[in-house]
């Protein structure tokens, strides 16, 4: 059922929220509640032990993280001249670049003081095993985890980081599509339609319909045997081209193509501006070339991210926001004519009326 959504493309990705944080909070609350009932009645020495153990464990974690960062610095120091302009200070800062470093420093001091203060309460029951446990958690465990790669990000975490910091392949394609094309052709669309005298009154929806097949296969023509077996979609005319100086070319031209679509149900012919989102062809080619190491599964993931990022970019640009519509489909055995007619009907309520 879900695969039938969006013309067989499937459901779009939604932005990740804070579900993981709430699960973590829930687990912590359950732990505290269970511990509270398990340790009743809470005596002073029991509370002192928990305070001491938590402070000691957190301090061990901080020391262990510093030890791991020191290992990273050991490698960066070897590349000081090539990567950090010969500045050891920059290399050190890169390795120990904590976010909110002031808060972390204050937190570490508080943990240290808390451990020191609680140590007096635990003095009479203190055992040398605590010292051994501290150094195991502070030095051995962090470096063991680091050496054997047990601390690597999961696929979910990796995806979250990439989405937040615009590091996905799809993000680069979407931004390139925007800055290299859509940012200047969409604001000029209305004027280019008006300059095309023959069809300016035939085009009912003044938007560029950007077609995105799920398999990312971009063909030279929108109408083909697979997507338009009856040949109901035809090229009508090119809009008046937009000319501008760009990249050392004095008169670089950008033009949109008007397509005619015959509706079998009403026998009417409609006109719209539509084109493939050409950047996604790179995803198809990468998934087809073993050197790029992009699996089909990852390609499907990236095209979803491309759609989400492109929509976000265009919706945040007032000059582009209402000048486009993304049209997705499964990519195989889909009637592009019917899909486009539905898409145009979604854009305007009086779509069927003729002047």
Q: Can you describe what's shown?
A:
The protein is α/β, with parallel strands linked by helices and 355 residues long. 51% of the residues lie in helices and 14% in strands. The protein has helices at residues 19-38, 44-76, 80-83, 88-95, 101-121, 128-147, 155-164, 169-185, 189-195, 280-288, 296-315, 336-347, and strands at residues 203-213, 233-238, 242-246, 249-254, 257-262, 269-276, 324-329. Strand 3 (242-246) and strand 4 (249-254) form a beta hairpin. Helix 2 packs parallel to helix 6 (128-147), helix 8 runs parallel beside helix 11 (296-315) and helix 10 runs antiparallel to helix 11 (296-315). It is elongated and about 90 Å long. The two termini are 39 Å apart. 20% of the residues are buried. Mean pLDDT is 81; it is low at 350-355.
Keywords:
12 helices; two-stranded antiparallel ribbon; five-stranded mixed β-sheet; single chain; 2',3'-cyclic GMP-AMP binding; cyclic-di-GMP binding; alpha/beta; membrane; STING
């Amino acid at each position: 059922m879900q695969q039938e959504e969006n013309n067989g493309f499937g459901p779009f990705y939604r932005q990740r929220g804070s579900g993981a944080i709430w699960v973590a909070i829930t687990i912590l609350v359950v732990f505290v509640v269970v511990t509270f009932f398990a340790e009743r009645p809470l005596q002073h020495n029991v509370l002192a032990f928990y305070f001491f153990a938590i402070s000691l464990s957190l301090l061990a974690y901080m020391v262990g993280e510093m030890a791991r960062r020191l290992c990273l610095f050991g490698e960066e120091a070897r590349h000081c001249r090539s990567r950090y302009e010969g500045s050891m200070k920059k290399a050190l800062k890169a390795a120990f670049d904590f976010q909110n470093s002031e808060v972390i420093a204050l937190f570490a001091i508080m943990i240290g003081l808390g451990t020191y203060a609680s140590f007096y309460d635990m003095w009479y029951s203190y055992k040398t095993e605590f010292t051994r446990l501290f150094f195991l958690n502070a030095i051995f465990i962090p470096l063991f985890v680091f050496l054997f790669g047990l601390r690597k990000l999961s696929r979910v975490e990796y995806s979250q980081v990439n989405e937040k910091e615009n590091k996905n392949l799809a993000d680069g394609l979407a931004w390139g599509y925007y800055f290299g094309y859509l940012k200047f052709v969409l604001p000029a669309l209305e004027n280019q339609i008006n300059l095309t005298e023959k069809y300016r009154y035939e085009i009912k929806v003044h938007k560029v319909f950007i077609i995105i097949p799920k398999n990312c296969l971009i063909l030279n023509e929108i109408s083909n045997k697979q997507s338009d077996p009856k040949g109901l979609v035809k090229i009508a005319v090119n809009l008046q081209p937009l000319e501008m100086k760009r990249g050392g070319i004095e008169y670089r031209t950008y033009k949109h193509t008007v397509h005619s679509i015959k509706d079998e149900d009403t026998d009417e012919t409609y006109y719209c501006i539509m084109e493939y989102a050409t950047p996604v062809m790179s995803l198809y080619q990468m998934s087809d070339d073993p050197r790029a190491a992009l699996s089909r599964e990852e390609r499907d993931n990236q095209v979803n991210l491309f759609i989400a990022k492109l929509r976000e970019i265009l919706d945040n640009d007032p000059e582009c926001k209402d000048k486009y519509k993304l049209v997705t489909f499964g990519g195989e055995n889909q009637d592009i004519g019917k899909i486009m007619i539905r898409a145009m009907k979604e854009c305007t309520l009086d779509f069927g009326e003729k002047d």
